Amino acid sequence: MDIDALNADFGLPGTLRIAVGRGGLTMIEVYNGLANALISTHGGQVLSYCPAGAPDDLLFVSERAWFAPGKEIKGGVPICWPWFGADPDTADLDVPDRGIHGFARRLPWSILATAALPSGATRVTLGLADDADTRVLWRHHFNLLVEITVGSTLTVELITRNAGDRSFQITQGLHSYFRVGDATQARVLGLAGCDYIDKAAGANDAILTQDGPLRVAAEVNRIYESVPPVLTIEDPVLARRIRISSRHSATTVVWNPWVATARAMADLDDGDYRIMLCVETVNAASEVIGIPGGGEARLAAEYAIEPLE
C-alpha cells in the first residue's frame, strides 16, 4: 500500500497521518487536540484512544498480539461480523471451520474518507466489501462500513448494507477491550436484574440473573440480554469511570479470561487478565438481525472517560 498516496488522499495536516505500523500494517494516527487515537486498517480496528489530559489509554492491547495478515489483533475494539461467537453454519461443507467471531477482524479494510468536524473531532470511515474470498466464507453480497469519530469521546458505528437481492441474517459485536487498573477491583454497573447466559467453563450455558454490580473473581463469559443503553465500568485503581453508551443493541457480552484461559492464549500474557475487561456492545444470542435486500443495519457505541470522584 502506498503510504504517500494515502496521505495525499486522506491525510489531514496537523490532525491525521497514515503510517506503517507493527507487522507492516497500515495505521491511521489521529492527534486533533481533543484526543489521540490509533486505528488499524487491518480489521478496521481502533487500537488506542486517549482523550486530552487523560493519563491512561481507554483501551487494552496485548503486548503479544499478532500484527499479521490473516490474524486478529488481540485488543482495542475488534469487529465481530457477520457472526458473533461460534460459526452459525457448521454444516458448510466448503469451509468446515470458518472461525469464531466471523472474518471482518482478520481482513484489510479500505480507507474511504477522513474529515475534520466542526466540533474539532475527526471522523475516519473504513470499508469492507464482499469479494471472491469472502463469498467462500459467507455467500452474500455486502458493503460494511465503520465510522470512527475521535473527539472528547470515542464513537464506533458499524453499518451493514445488503448489496444483494436476498435477505440475510447477522449477529455482530464491538468486542471492546478496556484497560483497567485491576479487574478484581473494577465493577460493571447497569446490568442488575438482567438475565444472562453463562458461557464460562463448566457453566453449561446456565441462564441466571445479575444481582447488583458485576465483579470479577473468576472467569467471566456472559451474554446479557435486554440491557439498558448505558453501562459503566468503575475503576478505583485508575480513578476513572468508563461510560459505554450503545445504540441498536439490546445484548452485552462481558468477558474476562481469568488465569487458565489467559495462560492458554498465545497472544495474551499470563497476567493480562488483571488489566483488561471486555464489555461488548453486540447483537447476539436471541438478538439476530435480519437485513432485506438493499437494506442496512447499524450498531454503535460511544465511549467516555470520566473521573471517579
Automatic annotation (TrEMBL):
Catalysed reaction equations from the record: alpha-D-glucose 6-phosphate = beta-D-glucose 6-phosphate
Catalytic machinery residues: 175, 280
Keyword terms, alphabetized: Isomerase
Domain of life: Bacteria
Isomerase in keyword set: yes
GO biological process, one term: carbohydrate metabolic process
UniProt xrefs under Pfam families: Aldose_epim (PF01263)
Gene Ontology molecular function terms on file: carbohydrate binding; glucose-6-phosphate 1-epimerase activity
CDD domains membership: D-hex-6-P-epi_like
EC number: 5.1.3.15
SUPFAM superfamilies found in the cross-reference section: Galactose mutarotase-like
Statement: the UniProt record of this protein carries the keyword Membrane: no
Family statement drawn from the similarity comment of this UniProt entry: Belongs to the glucose-6-phosphate 1-epimerase family.
Name of the protein this chain belongs to: Putative glucose-6-phosphate 1-epimerase
Organism: Candidatus Thiodictyon syntrophicum
